[in-house]
Design brief:
The chain is of the alpha/beta class and 219 residues long. It contains 8 helices and 6 strands. It is 40% helix and 15% strand. The protein has a 6-stranded mixed sheet.
């Protein structure tokens, strides 16, 4: 059985471009973000991946990214599930603020702590630990069973919700996960063992379009 799990961060959003804290706010993709999403679809099509099911958040930038991936794959009939559990972390009082503006208001070190620590939440918002508390049960109960049945599963979500998944899949600690960055449009292909551990991991780089990477090298 394949047991393939692919995770994708959405393409660049309008607020990514403006360097604003987004969280549960709902901007759409920029033209660059649309192209990033389409590139993901093209990359996955090169691997001849046919998915059985997809999961995404309730937020527009992730759902739009998924729709564009489906379009490029020619697989619009795939069943998809959107759930709040996969939403980006909630940034509370930081939501909508430019990151430089937030640094002037609260101090650069305090904002860095809110952004990069594991268990320190911004005012009125979630820490990465809080985000993990909703993402990981959803993964274990809703996503993982499909992969363990041998289905090919696509998850399109957000930088922080996917970082919490990477903590489990890549055996990161609360200390090491703070240095993990997932760029917009990033694609990571996991093959899972029968016990849900990772048999192989491959991050598809932007230069895959010019690289001679065979499907069997990844899958």
């Amino acid at each position: 059985m394949d047991r393939i799990l692919v995770i994708v961060r959405h393409g660049q959003s309008e607020w990514n471009l403006k360097n604003q804290f987004t969280g549960w706010k709902n901007p759409d993709l920029t033209p660059r973000g649309i192209e990033e999403a389409r590139r993901v679809g093209r990359e996955l099509k090169k691997l001849d991946l046919h998915f059985n099911i997809a999961f995404t958040s309730l937020l527009l930038r992730a759902r739009h990214t998924l729709a564009l991936i489906f379009e490029e794959l020619g697989q619009s009939n795939i069943s998809s599930i959107s759930d709040r559990a996969l939403n980006e972390r909630h940034y509370g009082d930081l939501s909508g603020l430019n990151k430089e503006e937030a640094s002037r208001q609260w101090g650069a070190e305090q904002v860095r702590l809110w952004r990069r620590s594991y268990d320190v939440a911004p005012p009125g918002g979630e820490s990465l630990k809080d985000t993990a508390a909703r993402v990981l049960p959803f993964y274990c109960q809703q996503i993982l069973p499909h992969a363990l049945r041998g289905e090919r599963v696509l998850v399109v979500a957000h930088g922080n919700s996917l970082r919490t998944l990477a903590m489990v899949l890549d055996h990161l600690t609360p200390e090491t996960v703070t240095s993990l960055e997932l760029a917009t449009g990033v694609v990571i292909v996991y093959r899972l063992n029968a016990d849900s551990t990772v048999a192989s991991r491959r991050e598809l780089k932007e230069d895959i379009q010019s690289a001679d990477i065979r499907r069997d090298e990844i899958l």
